[in-house]
Specification:
Blueprint: H1 8-19, E1 27-31, H2 46-63, E2 70-72, H3 79-83, E3 89-91, E4 94-96, H4 119-132, E5 138-140, E6 144-145, H5 147-155, H6 162-165, H7 167-192, E7 199-200, E8 206-207, E9 209-213, H8 222-240, E10 242-247, H9 259-263, E11 268-273, H10 277-281, E12 294-298, E13 301-302, E14 310-311, E15 319-320, E16 323-324, H11 328-331, H12 335-341, E17 346-353, H13 356-372
Parallel strand pairs: 1-17, 2-5, 6-9, 9-10, 10-11, 11-12, 12-17, 13-16
Antiparallel strand pairs: 3-4, 7-8, 14-15
Helix pairs in contact: 2-13, 5-7, 7-8
């Protein structure tokens, strides 16, 4: 089965949050030193990739929080560009490609066959994962790179000038990249016996659709996002379910301007960003009290007072202000969280802990606080 019966409770909690049905705020807990990461060596050795993922998923299972244990095929961000001819390179131990196409080649681009690039490698890895994983671990296909991010990896930042000089060509390019995204997603769903309109992200969040990494949209104006990017999400939504959009703010640039055009797109389920829940709660965020959508974010919980912001894990450049366990009850009384409690907005949180035992304690406290506040 695609989603083992042991994970159905988590699926239901997440689905109710997306649909704003329960008022419960799910909390997924991961062990800090066990996480998914890209590694060039994985292209030669599936076992090393699987073993790393299995350690992470085993800890997720033992903690038993609102999270689905995932083993992730870490072949991103090179998968889609490789189908159009990109050569995968070793960049400091990570898989990467250099922009290699010219703008003149855009009009010649066609939908590639499904055995292009590193697709056969991924298919072999899927088979290995299927043969070796426990039933309650969900195989997550490579985290999906959004069409604009694919385009930039192929053509470089020069692509941005075309938004002004030849917008029609940009629409053509994004359309073909979106259609390839859909055909690959369908293919992987077939191999994994995964439902057409359901997905588990590499971070263990269930959604009625698909998650995309769309960091490059921060470089566009709200009108550009509406005109060029939202149509790609609407097309994905027609075929794969609604789209949960990820982008990275940074400590210096908050990029709040992207939220409103995204949540106004009928194909978008919500936003999953790396700035932490405090990024969304900030009064600098003009969309902080938005309703009728889903937000997915990290929170940093600590047992004792901390000296300052902490990193959720080594892959996130955004340090997050920690919340002491004893202050969680008061923290959840903030007006921001009340929208979710009142079933007006979906909210799913993630947290990192030092050990399984700490995770079990934190999740028990989380349940106790929420149960006593209803």
């Amino acid at each position: 089965m695609w989603l083992d019966k042991q994970n159905k409770r988590t699926k239901q909690n997440h689905l109710q949050a997306h649909r704003r049905e329960s008022g419960y705020i799910p909390l997924g807990i991961l062990q800090r030193d066990l996480f998914s990461i890209n590694n060039y060596r994985y292209f030669q050795e599936y076992k090393e990739m699987f073993d790393n993922e299995a350690k992470k998923a085993t800890a997720m299972r033992k903690i038993g929080s609102d999270i689905i244990p995932t083993v992730v095929l870490r072949f991103d961000p090179v998968l889609f560009p490789s189908m159009f001819g990109a050569k995968v390179e070793d960049s400091g131990g990570f898989p990467w490609i250099k922009p290699w196409k010219t703008v003149e080649e855009i009009r010649k681009m066609k939908l590639p066959p499904l055995d292009s690039g590193i697709i056969p490698l991924v298919v072999d890895a899927i088979d290995y994962f299927k043969r070796n994983k426990p039933d309650d671990f969900v195989i997550c296909t490579p985290p999906e790179l959004a069409p604009l991010d694919q385009a930039i990896s192929m053509f470089g930042s020069e692509i941005f000038t075309l938004f002004y000089e030849d917008p029609g060509l940009i629409h053509e390019l994004l359309d073909i990249l979106t259609r390839n995204f859909i055909q690959v997603s369908r293919y992987f769903k077939h191999l994994l016996n995964e439902p057409q309109n359901e997905k588990v992200s590499f971070l263990g969040t269930y959604m009625p659709g698909i998650r995309v990494a769309a960091d490059s949209i921060v470089n566009l104006s709200p009108d550009m996002i509406t005109d060029f990017i939202n149509p790609t999400f609407e097309l994905m939504a027609e075929e794969l379910g609604q789209v949960l959009v990820h982008y990275c703010p940074s400590p210096g640039e908050k990029y709040y301007h992207v939220i409103e055009p995204l949540i106004n797109c009928k194909g978008v389920l919500g936003i999953d960003q790396s700035g932490g829940v405090e990024y969304l709660m900030s009064r600098d965020n003009p969309s902080r009290m938005v309703i009728n959508t889903t937000m997915v974010a990290d929170a940093a919980f600590v047992r004792k007072e901390s000296s300052g912001p902490i990193a959720c894990d080594p892959t996130n450049i955004n340090p997050i202000n920690p919340i002491v366990w004893s202050d969680i009850r008061r923290w959840l009384g903030n007006e921001y969280f009340q929208l979710s409690k009142q079933r007006r907005r979906g909210l799913i949180l993630r947290a990192k802990v030092e050990s399984v035992n700490e995770g079990e304690e934190l999740f028990g406290l989380w349940h106790e606080i929420q149960a006593s506040s209803t």
